[in-house]
Design brief:
Aminopeptidase, 5 strands, alpha+beta, 5 helices
Length: 153
């Protein structure tokens, strides 16, 4: 296997990122896969890229193909004496390279980024139907310590 590298995503990665998001059968809600991303994707990417508290991290092999992605958001707060936390979203690893330790390396990279940014906690949510993902996150030290709730707007 080629050497796996992690870096901040660039706009030219967007078609491959969208393709990874579209692979997800649980969260797929109409992702539009195309060589040219829709204006909505471009706007969202540019907004994330411009925000110093947001990063999209990609994992690539030496051939530069994007095989993994996640979004990392740094959240300043007042609780716990002003401790910052990191929120992980949109974790995806290409179905073509799963079960090779890429997800573990991706999350380990995210934890290190959060530490570098002064975060005291890193958190994520996972759909309850994702029993394999939940089991995986637990092996990395994540705990189901809170009950998450969402409301569609």
């Amino acid at each position: 296997m080629d050497k796996l590298e992690f870096r901040i995503a660039r706009i030219e990665d967007l078609p491959e990122i969208i393709a990874l998001l579209a692979e997800d059968v649980v969260a797929r809600v109409g992702e539009v896969v195309s060589d040219i991303p829709t204006p909505e994707y471009v706007r969202a990417f540019q907004e994330i890229e411009a925000d110093v508290n947001n990063e999209i991290i990609v994992g690539t092999f030496l051939n530069k193909k994007v095989v993994a992605v996640l979004q990392l958001t740094y959240i300043p707060g007042l609780i716990m004496q002003g401790m910052k936390r990191a929120q992980v979203e949109g974790v995806r690893v290409s179905s073509t390279v799963r079960s090779r330790g890429i997800g573990k390396k991706l999350l380990t990279f995210a934890v290190e980024r959060a530490r570098e940014r002064g975060c005291g906690i890193i958190q994520l949510t996972s759909n309850k139907v994702r029993t394999n993902a939940i089991r995986f996150y637990k092996t990395l030290g994540f705990e189901a310590s809170h009950e998450g709730m969402k409301k569609a707007l």
